[in-house]
């Protein structure tokens, strides 16, 4: 039921599972900037670590994961854990009557992603995936340009989402196969999500993986080819071994023009979009540095929960992204996580 216009909107109180650094950037800082939103608790396997993080961030309560789920004054659980842990704790949170936001990717694979979506339906709560970039105004403009027809008939789509080689170091959970590590899991999922948003469901044609020597379940880099529409190729590079600058770029080549976009994953880091037709610049867009994708994501979730309206971040919609991740890994000779 939607609240009457004269009713005061109920506050949204958040509990965090996981003491990872992303929690501050993705949840605590945005909550401070929004009225009626507060982070009330942090949970960790180590209650002492949870208490230290809570003190550092000014969060009132801290304890174990279970303590956060049992907290009576929490409405939404933000799960900032390794992907293999998402399904267990998302289902526990939903059973406890909480809404859930899973940090991307939604889960370890398409099967467990569907379990999260099904559990949300079963318990009458909402489950979301944290593709924050989708809520940034730059991304909305990017999708509008792609859908406008200015490029003519699309001939090729190319993503290069490469993290600089010195960022993901030994010991990082993104290099642990047992925790759902891998480049497609970490950055390729963004490209798949954006492809689905712009063009619908893709088909996976091929994939080539560079494996991590210390854990051959993990791809340091994967080059995948997908097909959309009538067979238009979509090439996706997902990498932990990029050059010193790294890359978050998208190129869409059409019969009437070429679109180039940068900083696609995190638009507030100086994203730019340019459409050219030969030597002529047709369209240019630069992201407003004052816009923040994490703040926009949280504001969006508040609205979706209060109104009951569908969300582009709904877990039910996000299952397809994980199924495509699975298909890429199979095409590259690996097993889904």
From TrEMBL:
Domain Gfo/Idh/MocA-like oxidoreductase N-terminal: 12-131
Pfam families to which the protein is assigned, alphabetical: GFO_IDH_MocA, GFO_IDH_MocA_C3
Domain of life: Bacteria
InterPro entries to which the protein is assigned, alphabetical: Gfo/Idh/MocA-like_OxRdtase_N (IPR000683), Gfo/Idh/MocA_domain (IPR050984), GFO_IDH_MocA-like_dom (IPR055170), NAD(P)-bd_dom_sf (IPR036291)
A Gene Ontology molecular function term of the record: nucleotide binding
Keywords: NAD, Oxidoreductase
Family named by the database record: Belongs to the Gfo/Idh/MocA family.
Protein name per its UniProtKB record: Oxidoreductase
Organism: Pseudolysinimonas yzui
């Amino acid at each position: 039921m939607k609240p009457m216009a004269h009713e005061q909107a109920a506050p949204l109180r958040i509990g965090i599972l996981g003491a990872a650094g992303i929690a501050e950037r993705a949840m605590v800082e945005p909550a401070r900037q929004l009225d009626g939103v507060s982070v009330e608790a942090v949970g960790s396997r180590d209650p002492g670590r949870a208490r230290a993080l809570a003190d550092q961030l000014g969060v009132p309560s801290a304890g174990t994961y279970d303590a956060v789920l049992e907290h009576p004054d929490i409405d939404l659980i933000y799960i900032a854990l390794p992907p293999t842990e998402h399904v267990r704790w998302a289902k526990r949170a939903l059973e406890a009557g909480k809404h859930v936001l899973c940090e991307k990717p939604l889960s370890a694979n398409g099967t467990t992603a569907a379990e999260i979506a099904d559990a949300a339906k079963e318990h009458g709560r909402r489950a979301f995936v944290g593709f924050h970039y989708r809520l940034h105004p730059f991304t909305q403009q990017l999708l509008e340009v792609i859908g406008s027809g200015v490029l003519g008939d699309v001939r090729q789509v190319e993503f290069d989402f490469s993290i600089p080689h010195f960022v993901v170091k030994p010991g990082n959970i993104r290099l642990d196969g047992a925790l759902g590590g891998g480049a497609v899991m970490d950055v390729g999922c963004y490209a798949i999500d954006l492809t689905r948003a712009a063009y619908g469901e893709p088909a996976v044609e091929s994939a080539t993986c560079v494996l991590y020597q210390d854990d051959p379940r993990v791809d340091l880099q994967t080059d995948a080819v997908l097909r959309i529409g009538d067979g238009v190729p979509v090439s996706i590079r997902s990498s932990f071994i990029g050059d010193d600058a790294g890359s978050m770029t998208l190129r869409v080549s059409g019969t009437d023009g070429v679109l180039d976009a940068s900083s696609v994953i995190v638009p507030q880091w100086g994203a730019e979009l340019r459409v050219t037709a030969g030597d002529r610049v047709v369209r240019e867009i630069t992201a407003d540095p004052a816009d923040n994708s994490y703040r926009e994501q949280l504001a969006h979730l508040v609205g979706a929960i209060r109104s009951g309206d569908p969300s582009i971040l709904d877990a039910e919609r996000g299952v397809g992204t994980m199924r495509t991740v699975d298909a890429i890994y199979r095409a590259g000779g690996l097993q889904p996580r």
